[in-house]
From TrEMBL:
Belongs to the class-I aminoacyl-tRNA synthetase family. IleS type 2 subfamily. PANTHER family: ISOLEUCINE--TRNA LIGASE, CYTOPLASMIC (PTHR42780:SF1), SOLEUCYL-TRNA SYNTHETASE (PTHR42780). One of its GO terms (molecular function) is aminoacyl-tRNA deacylase activity. It comes from the Bacteria. It is found in: Cytoplasm. It is an enzyme of class 6 (ligase). ATP binds at residue 635. It catalyses: tRNA(Ile) + L-isoleucine + ATP = L-isoleucyl-tRNA(Ile) + AMP + diphosphate. The gene is ileS. A motif ('HIGH' region) lies at residues 48-58. Monomer. Its cofactor is Zn(2+). This is Isoleucine--tRNA ligase.
């Protein structure tokens, strides 16, 4: 009937068999091509770079992507899964530079751009086989044969067209701005790239002293003596920028003061005069360590001139006459530092420099190296002492020299955040230079409005991390001074008076009058394309573009839009679903969103797309992954986990299920092989054992599973399971529609482990064991069979391998006309008419009381095999009492009790000790917690217990103040009466009478004997369904007990006959001890035709 199922299955082995089946039968392609009455479900694959091995974090994103694509396919959508490869950019260049031993751009130039780029091209697919193997092994279906590749000419040409469309609307432009610049790679970075590289670091924290011109001080009435120096006390964490200082900024409306204070070093008996914000004097000098000589507003300082501390590089033609003066800026903060801000327009203060027509001085070049001109103001002519030093390295010597000249009030360190190149860890410089930008600020309101149309999972990303990013949006720094990337398609005339942006190869060919169809659009070949127009010679600007622009262009460029596939784009935009890690909120998520908003804005270029459309409708944002202790994974710590280790040992289904069920997608996930092993053991093996049970007995009995057995004619326990299954279908569907895989997977797990295995199968084993094939047995088979098939379908998107195996064996063996794969089957729909709410309520009450009764047994240390005389039960209402009475026999059997007594709902059978739930109330009550403990020891606890049962707050009065405490604020300890073990929870009570009579003790001995006999069967190598002849030899009370309960023993151990003597022809012979009495066991297996084997 069914293929036999291995007991000790190796999941990875059969998963490979499933992969082979999918490949041989082209199941993936069939899933794309099958009927799709629901239309398209559009998915965008965030392109990885294949020049490194895939890690655990790549497995996570692929697992979450695959789940919803399989789910939507089963729902009747057409789901094309076009893969993609990110092949350009700094990560690729750095990898090649490392192999070649290069440390700077000059090395690349000397090597040759063409040769270098060719190596980059080769490197991007060095690990492609690793990526393909991992993708296949975890069951992530993706069309990699037709994947888009960002280095291909067609993709680049689409990017050109996008940039041309922005150019035509004045959204692509060149400007001289402060831009984050990487000195190691000598290139600009976009704001969203910079955002990914911030670190907490320890940097200098210094207080430079700028000597004001005392004659100006006196003229302004700020002090009356010209003979004593007055210092404008500033504060900075970037000493290397001081040679570029040209101004000091104050806040005009803030209060400042002239203070006398001793220097930090040197002669403490003398005092110096300092000007700084009044509110910061205590913080800077220390309370009582200074005198206030005069106070005034910042406005009184504006225009005051001072002496610079260091010389910087002065560009040719730069006029210094407007420099070294105090200016006003409302952005100056007066709650840290000194309230006097050091201004260096070349390194972050360009806008303020333009506002006040300040000169521009430089301390370091674009490689981050200090200029030769940098030195102390009074230093002798010649090259400065810091020449060629890396800017961060120069800090120490600059500080030492200023301290030596007594021009620093204090030099300490501070822990703060600073941006580094997130690709290679190089500290960045906020550098004033020419760059090309996309004017995203022009559509800032649209960016925010479109964000509100997206369903973020978790929802707080919309207004939090992503929303904050959009509200603080600045123009996108697009250009890169690099080599391996899509070239910026802008040509400039020799006199720089005219610019032309090219939107296609055809347009460029027309400008040059040449056939460029075979041109490689990369550098250096594109740099060689020059042309003349209007009597001017045009040369391409020497930039590539931000790789995030390329990845953000994938909705259009993957189809070579608009040159081809215009109708295809219309049916594949926006995406219904994307999924990546949280850092992509400032990476790919942003570039997708920004480009879509720019292109679908009024006057945008996407004629086939609805106006003001976001790029995607739903986004799952994944959290980071850490080791099982919660520590960040790193090679140095030795706590990284190779995904192949897990895949080879536990398999892909266990790995996937762990990821889905352990915590919501956005949470940081602990990960280890052991945690995945727990999932395999606790859930998947439980599922497998239930499936194995069905196959084993069905193969013995050969039930007609095609025969219809109406649900309403089935026994109550079957109807209960059918109700639970339909609730499960409803709940899993609702949760997946809400993009909540954690709740969906947990619902399936709880159903399989608790409802199906631990309750239904366990309680119904005898129906499968019994010899007669009657209607009751067929109903049990039909119910369990249908349930396993539905569970396989519900699990298919999450555990595609085991669900395929179960489906192949169970469904196609009985109904060969069904789809050949579970992934080609239709998603299950729940039937509300099959959900019996009263039956579900009654069974839920029964199970709750059973759980409480088991807990009470554990408290009293009485094993479940020992029968007890009575259980006292209290539930919450009369309907629950009625339901429990109807199911009373099941309750007695489950808890092994002889009698059930129902207490009145208002009866208090036990006493209570109430204690505060400290983790919860500690935060709210603080120092009042001891008073609460004392109060709970003296008051009548019944009112609190009653409130807890009814879910009400309890009002507690402490020291004249009232506290409203929720039920969770209290912990209840039940104090059982003598002779009883009681447990209460949420108003439900189970109290077991633990007193044992001789009859109960005897029956307990028999139960223990049955357990040991089941172990003997297992050791003898018998299957669960094998029947036996049994020989028992013992004496005394044990013999008496076995004879008294002979029929129970026969039924439980599947013995056709029991002799109280040895079976001479036995196939197995052993001895066991029960309460220090020896029991000799001999057994003989009976074949299926009734003969002795």
């Amino acid at each position: 009937m069914f293929r036999e199922v291995e007991k000790n299955l190796c999941f990875p082995s059969f998963e490979q068999e499933v992969i082979d089946f999918w490949k041989t039968h082209h199941i993936f392609q069939k899933s794309v091509d099958k009927d799709a009455p629901q239309g398209n479900y559009v998915f965008y694959e965030g392109p990885p770079t294949a020049n490194g091995k895939p890690g655990v974090h790549h497995v996570i994103s692929r697992a979450y992507k695959d789940l919803f694509l399989r789910y939507k396919t089963m729902q009747g959508y057409r789901v094309e899964r076009k893969g993609g490869w990110d092949t350009h950019g700094l990560p690729v260049e750095l990898e090649v530079e490392k192999k070649l031993g290069f440390t700077k751009k000059a090395d690349i130039e000397a090597f040759g751009i063409a040769r270098f780029n060719e190596l980059c091209k080769q490197s991007v697919f060095e690990r492609i086989q690793d990526w393909q193997a991992m993708t296949e092994r975890i069951g992530y279906w993706l069309d990699l044969e037709n994947a888009y590749i960002t280095y291909e000419n067609q993709y680049i040409e689409s990017c050109w067209w996008l940039m041309k469309s922005l150019w035509e609307r004045n959204l692509l432009f060149e400007d001289y701005r402060s831009t984050w610049h990487c000195p190691r790679n000598n290139t600009s970075l976009s704001d969203h790239e910079v955002a990914q590289g911030y670190r907490d670091v320890e940097d200098p924290s210094i207080y430079p002293m700028f000597a004001a011109y005392t004659d100006e001080i006196v003229k302004r009435g700020l002090w009356d003596k010209e003979t004593q120096p007055v210092y404008l006390l500033a504060w900075t964490t970037t000493p290397w920028t001081l040679p570029a200082n040209v101004a000091l900024a104050v806040r005009a409306d803030a209060m400042y003061g002239l203070f006398a204070a001793p220097p930090q070093a040197g002669d403490r008996s003398q005092t110096d005069l300092y000007i700084l914000a009044s509110s910061l004097a205590n913080q800077v000098f220390g309370e009582g360590n200074y005198r206030t000589l005069k106070t005034f507003t910042g406005e009184a300082l504006v225009g005051l001139h001072y002496q610079p501390l260091l010389q910087g590089y002065v560009p040719e033609g730069e006029d210094l006459s407007q420099g070294f003066r105090v200016v006003s800026d409302e952005q100056v903060i007066i709650d840290e530092g000194t309230g006097v801000l050091h201004i260096a327009p070349a390194y972050g203060d360009l806008e303020l420099g333009r506002k006040y027509n300040l000169p521009m001085l430089f301390s370091v070049d674009l490689l981050g190296q200090v200029y030769p001109q940098v030195k102390l103001v009074d230093a002798p002519d010649g090259e400065g002492p810091y020449t060629g030093q890396f800017f961060k390295d120069a800090d120490r010597q600059i500080i030492a020299d200023l301290l030596d000249k007594q021009l620093l009030y204090r030099a300490t360190t501070i822990n703060h955040t600073y941006p580094f190149n997130y690709r290679d860890g190089t500290p960045l410089i906020n550098y004033a230079k020419k760059s090309w930008y996309i004017r995203t600020t022009a559509v800032k309101d649209k960016l925010i409005a479109n964000n509100n149309k997206i369903h973020w999972h978790p929802e707080y990303i919309r207004d939090g991390r992503f929303g904050d990013w959009l509200r603080n949006n600045i123009d996108w720094a697009l250009s890169r001074e690099r080599y391996w990337g899509a070239p910026l398609p802008v040509w400039v005339s020799e006199d720089e008076s005219e610019y032309i942006c090219v939107g296609s190869v055809k347009e460029l060919a027309e400008l040059t009058g040449r056939d460029l169809s075979g041109l490689d659009l990369h550098r250096p070949y594109i740099d060689e394309i020059v042309f003349e127009k209007n009597g001017k010679r045009f040369q391409r600007v020497p930039y590539t573009v931000d790789v995030w622009f390329e990845s953000g262009a994938m909705p259009y460029a993957q189809w070579h839009y608009p040159f081809e596939n215009q109708d295809v784009l219309a049916g594949n935009f926006p995406a219904d679903y994307i999924c990546e890690a949280i850092d992509q909120t400032r990476g790919w998520f942003y570039s997708l969103h920004a480009l879509a908003t720019l292109l679908t804005d009024t006057g945008g270029s996407l004629a086939h797309i609805a106006q003001d459309s976001p790029a995607f409708k739903n986004a799952i944002v994944l959290g980071h992954i850490v080791d099982e202790k919660g520590e960040k994974m790193s090679k140095s710590k030795g706590n990284t986990v190779n995904p192949w280790t897990v895949l080879d040992a536990q398999g892909a289904d266990a790995l996937r299920w762990y990821l889905y069920s352990t915590s919501p997608p956005e949470n940081t996930k602990r990960f280890s092989q052991g945690l995945v092993e727990d999932t395999l053991r606790d859930f998947l093996m439980t599922l497998w054992n239930t499936y194995s049970f069905l196959v084993l007995y069905a193969n013995l009995d050969q039930p007609d599973l095609q025969q219809d057995v109406p649900v309403f004619e089935r026994p109550e326990i079957d109807r209960w399971l059918v109700s639970k299954v339909n609730v499960l279908i409803r709940d899993v569907t609702e949760r997946l529609e809400a993009y909540d895989p954690t709740s969906a997977s947990r619902a399936i797990r709880d159903f399989v482990v608790n409802d199906l295995s631990n309750w239904y199968v366990r309680r119904n084993r005898r129906r499968f064991w019994k010899s007669e094939n009657d209607g009751d047995k067929l109903s049990a088979y039909k119910t369990l069979y249908e349930t396993m098939v539905i569970v396989a379908k519900l699990m298919a998107p999450m555990a595609p391998f085991v669900s395929e195996h179960i489906y192949q064996n169970l469904v196609l063996s009985v109904f060969p006309e069904q789809p050949e794969s579970v992934h080609l089957a239709n998603w299950e729909k729940f039937d509300a008419t099959l959900i019996d709410t009263n039956l579900l309520r009654d069974m839920e009450t029964l199970i709750r009381i059973v759980e409480l009764g088991r807990a009470a047994r554990a408290t009293a240390k009485v094993k479940i095999r020992q029968p007890l005389g009575e259980i006292l039960v209290r539930v919450r209402n009369q309907a629950e009492i009625a339901g429990l009475k109807r199911l009373e026999e099941q309750l007695k059997e489950e808890l092994n009790v002889k009698k059930v007594t129902y207490l009145d709902i208002a009866t208090d059978f036990v006493d209570y000790t109430i204690k505060p739930n400290l983790p919860l109330v500690g935060k709210r009550l603080g120092k009042q917690v001891p008073a609460l403990k004392k109060k709970l020891e003296t008051i009548d606890t019944r009112e609190i217990v009653c409130n807890i049962r009814e879910g009400k707050e309890t009002v507690i009065h402490l020291d004249g103040k009232s506290y409203h405490l929720e039920p969770e604020a209290f912990l209840i300890e039940v104090n059982s009466p003598q002779g009883y073990a009681a447990i209460e929870e949420y108003g439900y009570l189970a109290a077991l009478n633990t007193q044992l009579t001789p009859e109960l003790i005897q029956e307990g001995v028999v139960r223990e004997a049955i357990r040991l006999l089941q172990e003997v069967r297992k050791k003898a190598g018998l299957n669960l369904s094998d029947r036996i002849h049994l020989g028992l030899e013992t004496s005394g009370t044990l013999l008496e007990a076995l004879k008294t309960h002979l029929e129970i023993v026969k039924n439980e151990v599947l013995a056709q006959e029991i002799r109280f003597a040895q079976i001479k022809e036995a196939c197995y012979n052993t001895c066991v001890n029960i309460n220090d009495i020896q029991l000799r066991v001999t057994l003989q297996k009976i074949s299926s035709n009734g003969e002795v084997d």
